[in-house]
Amino acid sequence: MMNLLDQANIFRFHDGLIKEFGVASNAALGWNKQAGQEARFKILSGIGMLNSHSVLDAGCGHADLYAYLVKLYPQLKYYGVEQIPGILQIAVERYIHLPEVNLFEGDFTLEGLPEVDYTLACGSLNYRNSDDLFVLKTIEKLFNNSRIGFGFNLLRTIEPADGFLVAYDPSYITAFCRKLTGKVSLIENYYGEDYSVFMYH
User: Fold this and answer.
1) Are 165 and 155 in contact (CB under 8 A)?
2) CA 58 – CA 79 distance, rounded (Å)
3) Helix (H), strand (E) at residue 74
4) Cα(60)–Cα(103) distance, integer angstroms
5) Nearest Cα to 58, choosing from 127, 146, 10, 120?
6) How far, in whole angstroms, is CA 105 from its chain's centroid?
């Protein structure tokens, strides 16, 4: 679903951030503020009781979501996929020694993914793509890859509107999600222009 030009744009975007801030920084992942990352993690962690369940983190970055989730759900099994090798290497150095952590390099829009109970996508669906239906196709793929549920966040608005990151009207996104399942929850008003959607089978 993501062509080579789209991939190159993502690599270029993060390469610039890595050169400016260092590969191990949250800024290399595109997070402006630590508080924003934590606010999003807090919402996504509420998708269900994750103990004794498997979770795929689509676009895992440094696997910071694992570090957040394991404090709440110490018995969860974590899978993280990240397409930028330098960023993934930080996650590997921090967590690969843990038996419940599985990390692999790849584009989650193209790769065959491990089937899991839950999939979470935190900030990884916001990139501009040459395919106008990219976000919808990716939502459908990740939902179908999840036995129980899929949670993700997007932006309602963003400035500049023609930049590398894209905003989506929540009503547009949730209307599509309801074509896939009747069990859809929209969570808003927790951090800036961010909103989250939970989908369940």
Assistant:
1) yes
2) 9
3) none
4) 9
5) 120
6) 14
Dump strand ranges (E) for the chain: 54-58, 77-82, 101-105, 116-121, 146-155, 183-187, 194-200
Cα Rg of the chain (Å, integer) = 16
**Which tokens is 182 given?**
């009747």
Question: Which 8-state DSSP code applies to residue 58?
Answer: E
Q: State the burial class of residue 200 (Cβ atoms within 10 Å of its Cβ: 0-12, 13-18, 19+).
A: middle
> Is residue 134 a contact partner of residue 71, using CB atoms and an 8 Å limit?
no
Q: What is the DSSP string of 146-172?
A: EEEEEEEEEES--SSTTSSB----HHH
Please tell me the predicted confidence (pLDDT) of residue 20: 53
- Per-residue pLDDT tens digits for 103-149: 999 999 887 899 999 999 998 998 888 888 999 999 999 999 999 99
Between CA 132 and CA 120 the distance in angstroms is: 22
Domain boundaries, the chain: 4-200
User: The pTM is what?
Assistant: 0.86
What is the spatial distance between Cα 114 and Cα 78, in angstroms, rounded to a whole number?
Answer: 11
* Helix, strand or coil, per DSSP, at residue 83: coil
The CATH fold assigned to 4-200 is: Rossmann fold (3.40.50)
